[in-house]
């Protein structure tokens, strides 16, 4: 286990809170670490929101077409079947396995009907109005899941996979009915009520659920018009931020990543707003006709389209105090892409991980487990067993840093002075500068990065992930000189990581 330690929290107040004023829109020290660290995660698919291709058993009494949660709810013995599945799909040993791999976050897909045990009003006027008794037991199980994750040092991203009216065409949006989320305004208004209910219930829980890293407003929405979705996003963010300005909010990009990044950049937000992109390369005709090595090269060649897009979006959102993650990805390739080489799948997974580690604040593999024969494309357990997915994904501490603060500070100050090329470069150009902010930013970035490193209290390392967002929230001065502070901060974080890896993570 690698929980956030109380000893760390005390030191964090001294090192990160040294300005003497509260940082805007940051919650408790513990929750801030969970929310702003680099999220290396996995989806717990088909636990609460069912997908028949992942697990078939809960559908044995479902009503035709037997593909969605509503189909199961309409069938015989629904409550008994569902609760048996909920209680056995993810158990204590699964939490331990995820933690030991070095992952630090799980993304849990939920439906709005899963909240009825906390507030029955979420079902009023919806397709699930008559099934409160079937789903009322989910809420205490969801709370237990969050609490269990915290015992293992794992954050939880709650993803509204199924919204009132259904936001896309897929059965994993809750029903087998046609989608009506965007065609009927009442569904969009009711979804904001659902999200407000979720946030209010989480905040009312005692003790505080510090490991909730955020909520995702909608999974993979298919809007009639992007302007309509963005208008709804803005309304939802406003309401949720009023309830909890420290809670990060995740938005699906509808596979229009740059367009939605521009939306976030142009819309000032109180909360940390994170853009979620999903990446698959196995469905289209182009995917099928592309070999596995070519897919891998297209993700690692800095000049290729996807890496260029990732770099652009990450830089844009970082400067805006927002974030960028890949909320769903896998090692799955169409059989037409496989060349027969033994490392096709392994190299494809490695290419994705390099891309995400370089440009993203987090990534979440889809999915943790799957019934049936081994599937190292979609099932993380199988991918690790087959050597397709690495057996460790986080930095691992091999040497204690206790009592080494003086060495860290000497190294920091030496590197800060060496980084003065920033000043020399910009001095070539006329302008009004605040070069002292670069040095101050470097020191702050280094110190904050080190604070994250030692947060876990175990062998797996927490790393500051949402670097631009954290830097912005550490100061209220975002005037013309902030860019120099941000440049220094980012260089300080990078230098600290290199130093930490060399001194505490090497053999």
UniProtKB/TrEMBL annotation:
Molecular functions per Gene Ontology: glucan endo-1,6-beta-glucosidase activity
Gene3D superfamilies the record matches: Glycosidases
SUPFAM superfamilies named in the record: (Trans)glycosidases
Keyword terms of this UniProt record: Glycosidase, Hydrolase
GO biological process: glucan catabolic process
GO cellular component, one term: cell surface
Sequence similarity: Belongs to the glycosyl hydrolase 5 (cellulase A) family.
Pfam families xref list: Cellulase
Start and end residues of each Glycoside hydrolase family domain: 90-370
PROSITE patterns: GLYCOSYL_HYDROL_F5
Protein name, UniProt field: Glycoside hydrolase family 5 protein
InterPro entries reported in the protein's UniProt record: GH, Glyco_hydro_5, Glyco_hydro_5_CS, Glycosyl_hydrolase_5
């Amino acid at each position: 286990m690698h929980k956030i330690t109380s000893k760390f929290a005390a030191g964090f107040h001294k090192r990160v809170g040294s300005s003497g004023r509260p940082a805007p829109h940051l919650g408790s020290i513990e929750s801030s670490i969970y929310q702003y660290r680099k999220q290396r995660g996995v989806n717990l698919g088909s636990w609460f929101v069912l997908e028949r291709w992942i697990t078939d058993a809960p559908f044995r009494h479902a009503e035709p077409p037997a593909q969605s949660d509503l189909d199961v709810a309409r069938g015989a013995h629904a409550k008994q079947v569902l609760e048996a599945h909920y209680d056995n799909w993810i158990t204590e040993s699964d939490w331990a396995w995820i933690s030991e791999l070095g992952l630090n976050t799980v993304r849990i897909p939920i439906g709005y009907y899963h909240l009825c045990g906390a507030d029955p009003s979420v079902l009023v006027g919806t397709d699930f109005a008559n099934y409160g008794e079937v789903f009322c037991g989910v809420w205490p199980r969801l709370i237990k899941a969050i609490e269990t994750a915290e015992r293992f040092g794992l954050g939880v991203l709650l993803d509204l996979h199924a919204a009132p009216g259904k936001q896309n065409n897929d059965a994993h949006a809750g029903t087998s009915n046609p989608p009506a989320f965007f065609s009927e305004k009442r569904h969009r208004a009711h979804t904001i009520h659902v999200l407000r209910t979720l946030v209010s219930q989480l905040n009312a829980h005692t003790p505080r659920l510090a490991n909730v890293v955020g909520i995702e407003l909608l999974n993979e929405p298919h809007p009639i018009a992007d302007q309509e979705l963005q208008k709804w996003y803005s309304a939802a963010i406003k309401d949720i931020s009023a309830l909890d300005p420290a809670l990060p909010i995740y938005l699906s990009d509808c596979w229009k990543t740059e367009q939605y990044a521009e939306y976030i950049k142009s819309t000032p937000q109180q909360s940390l707003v994170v853009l979620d992109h999903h990446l698959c390369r196995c469905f289209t005709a182009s995917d099928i006709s592309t070999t596995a090595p070519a897919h891998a090269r297209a993700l690692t060649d800095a000049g290729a389209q996807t890496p260029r897009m990732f770099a652009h979006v990450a830089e844009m959102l970082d400067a805006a105090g927002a974030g960028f993650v890949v909320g769903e990805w896998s090692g799955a390739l169409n059989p037409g892409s496989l060349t027969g080489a033994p490392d096709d799948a392994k190299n494809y997974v490695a290419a994705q991980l390099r891309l995400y580690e370089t440009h993203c604040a987090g990534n979440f593999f889809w999915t943790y487990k799957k019934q049936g024969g081994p599937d190292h494309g979609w099932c993380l357990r199988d991918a690790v067993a087959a050597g397709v997915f690495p057996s460790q994904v986080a930095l691992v501490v091999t040497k204690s840093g206790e009592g080494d603060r003086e060495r860290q500070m000497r190294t920091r100050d030496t590197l800060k002075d060496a980084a003065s090329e920033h000043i020399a470069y910009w001095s070539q150009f006329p302008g009004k500068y605040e070069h002292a902010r670069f040095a101050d930013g470097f020191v702050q970035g280094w110190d904050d990065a080190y604070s994250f490193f030692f947060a876990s209290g175990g062998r797996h390392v927490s790393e500051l992930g949402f670097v631009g967002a954290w830097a912005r929230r550490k100061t209220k001065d975002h005037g013309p000189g902030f860019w120099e502070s941000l440049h220094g901060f980012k260089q300080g974080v990078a230098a600290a990581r290199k130093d930490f890896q060399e001194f505490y993570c090497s053999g």
